[in-house]
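Expect chain and fold; thus:
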Amino acid sequence: MKIQRPQSFRVFGQPLAAAILLAGFSAQAMASESVSIGVAPTASGWYFGYSELSRLISSDSPLEISVRETGGSQENTIRLGRGEIDFALVDAPGAYEAYHGEGRYQNKAIDDIRMVLWVAPSTMHWAVRQDSGIETFEDLDGQRFNPSSIGGGGEYITERVFDALEITPDYQRMSMSDASDAVVDGRIIGFSYNGIPPIPAFTEVHSARPLRVLSMSDEQVATATEKLPFLSAATIPAGTYRDMPETTTLGTYIGVASSADLSEDAVYEFTRAYWENIERLSQTFAPAQGMTPAISVENTTSPLHAGAVRYYQEIGLDVPAELLPPEM
């Protein structure tokens, strides 16, 4: 069923009564709603991108969005479930597992998480110091390695992929900024992150202590994606980081989720303002280029928020029944 926007407001009666009603309606229409969005470490490209999209949405909707630095997707999902934030950066596997109570959310389902949209594809990076002697993933066995920022989607993906490949590093868990310092001063041999290349922290470390981004074999890609179907093969182009060749890795989608408790109007306005400003966002945040509402619907595997459904149906998209939330 296609959900229509409300009909235009019409006032009948005496002039004074009409003026009062119109004034009240105008004030309500202009009222702003303050909401928060949990993002990622400031050292990541995601923090910049989500700050930009929040600025654009705030300027073209009744929403005033405050951006909060967090550890990333997993922390955001947990905080969303606790009602500590209104919107959250999430990755595709995290959103699916949180809703269904699988994987890292086994027996801890967050059944009121609702998808809103996908922002961009994201790419896993696994990097080591060039002077470490590490050249393959197998060489990471027993080595002091940071699996990504604590609570981030990259940390979870790293653990799942390495389990699939039967690789067991000595995990050193810390924030992204601490991991960068630890690589530079030689306390760990490398670190990982799920983000948009080039990742600022990797570029900075590479200039101080040259890095090697590890490349997966076709067999490793096949093994990982068979066991983890929410991942797919991805490529980091040659020259993304100074003097580095093309690298084969894995990727997924990163987007925005909210709670079912957030109002339909708030999520509708967020979704509408985002897609109506996607070209402006793409000018400053290149990873969003080419993204469309249809991509968001086609690549979602857990229920959408009712406000997002309202927008997608309004622009003529067919939203599959399995993506309609229970409250609809």
About this structure: Residues 33-121+254-323 form a domain with the D-Maltodextrin-Binding Protein; domain 2 fold (CATH 3.40.190.10). The longest helix spans residues 15-30. The first strand starts at residue 33 and ends at 38.
